[in-house]
Protein: 5' nucleotidase, deoxy (Pyrimidine), cytosolic type C protein (NT5C)
Amino acid sequence: MEGDMGASPTIPEQYANQQVGISGYRVLNLDLDGVCADYAGAMRDYLVRNGRMDPQTIPANTRYALTDNDGWPFASKSEYIAAHKAAEEEHLYATMQPIPGVAHALQRLADEHVYIRIVTHRLFVSGQHRIVVSDTAKWLDDNNIPYMSLCFAGLKDSIQATVHIDDSPANIAVLREVGQHVVVFDQPYNRELGGPRMADWSDASVDQLLDWFEQWPAEQ
Ligand SMILES: [Mg+2]
Structure:
């Protein structure tokens, strides 16, 4: 029937009585930096390449904000922002390393009819949005990352989903505050947060995630 979501050939039969939305069909809001892509590693490579950081230096990674960690060559937040902008111009977002296993894992989720919606706050510095958007799309293509939609948004709680995956303690807290289901993508700076948590993009993690889509675990 026209207009009947249940009759749509794009929605598998087992979800025929559900709508694409918050709690029905499986929508995954997926963060990029620190979850799918190694932003800190790419910034470090940029700084080493430009002689601003010793190649032996591995900065700490116990705080979410880069500049809150020891080992980075920034005296102030504005110095960091300037370096970030320069790295963007050198196509940081087109060339950064994927987190191991991410493409295979997302392909599996797509095959299981999870609707992958990328939600990233990458437009937090103004002036170079064209580079950021096109390099992000290029990176997703080059790394064979499947997705149905690509959102550049900082207010993550304004875009609901069945399940979110994020690494930022602030984003996770805000999303949970409004009742959204968030899986913490494990990083040293988010270890104090409660679960559910995934350590990596292994097949076992994907299996677990698929179970959580079917049955969100009780309070941990
Ligand atoms: Mg992130």
